[in-house]
Design goal:
7-stranded mixed sheet
Amino acid sequence: MKLDLQFVRSQFPAFSEPSLEGWAFFENAGGSYPCIQFISRLTDFYMKNKVQPYYPYPASMRAGELMDLSYKRMADYLNVEASEIHFGPSTTQNVYVLANAMRPMWKDGDEIIVSCQDHEANAGAWRRLADRGIKVIEWHVNKQTGLLSIGELSSLFSDRTKMVAFPHCSNVIGHINPVKEISTLAHKHGALSVVDGVGLAPHGFPDLKDLEVDIYLFSLYKTFGPHLGLMYVKKELIGKMKNQSHFFKEGISRNMLTPAGPDHAQIGSVSGILDYFDMIYNHHFNEEAIPSQRNKALNGLFHEHEQALLRHLLDFLRSRNDLRIVGPSTTEERAPIVSIIPLNKTVEEVYATLTRHQLMLGTGDFYAVRPLMDMDIDRSPGVMRISFLHYTSMEEIDQLIEGLKIALD
């Protein structure tokens, strides 16, 4: 089965927007284009149901139903329970809430392992616990490759280790970490696994039950939807955390990790992402399937398309001796997040040329300061990042390659 790219792109208004015509978008790791299904649900909610939800009058009841539906449908796709799904303003803020909720579970002198491959979202708040009696153990990346070593992780555990925080996929290195293996190792030592899935989820939602993680986080504005962060927290765990909401919310799992009132409209529109996935599934497959099975099929479809684009791009990048690829230079266990550093020209010079050729990329550290520090890469100008998704075309990859040839020569 091959991805019907024309059909896929027809679901995203950006590809028919006149002001974006001719521009190729390669900063998807910073935020994807939204699908029309999400946009329609958000607009509809604001027009018809922008009232306090869960009161016994029609507009309010419908608002609550739409919010409940988003929790359930997202849980079904991720293969977990609706009570284990939590929405917050962003992944960074969600981790801050988690750190405060989990600190009372641990004693002074207990240890947590925090990787140095993360976006700061799954790093900063955990490290601040060092000021509150927790010993933070750093899991550094390889200086040359940017990869994390499972062997090194094994040596970091002690009988006081309570948690391991690491990314499913770094937003600058692009390597996909073996989450299930790391989680199994953490559990063997009596520790929790907390996984930042922000870099990986846009390329296919994970089966969280299969991964055996305790906490998993990603950003919905990078997966075709609203500017919200999603947290999965295993149901056995949330009861051990300290309530972060109003005192009378104690014991209500959906509220305990939401200090302020949630954004009703955005939560109610999350279902639009699943509307899009369902439409893509029904367009490509004839078999009836439950949401988690649909998700698995879509992952294969998206992966095959993205890998073809990635192979083409990496073939070109490897052919050049005037740039450095940060992280793996092959498609093996790699997401289409590729950071490069020009060797003969400055990042600013190359970037300016690419912009003139209607190429939208990002430069800098992307809040992945710690892996860049470990690899001795200056934060300023940092790296140039190329990131794309299943709606990207081979023609856009060719446009990028032609732009890079001109910019680098």
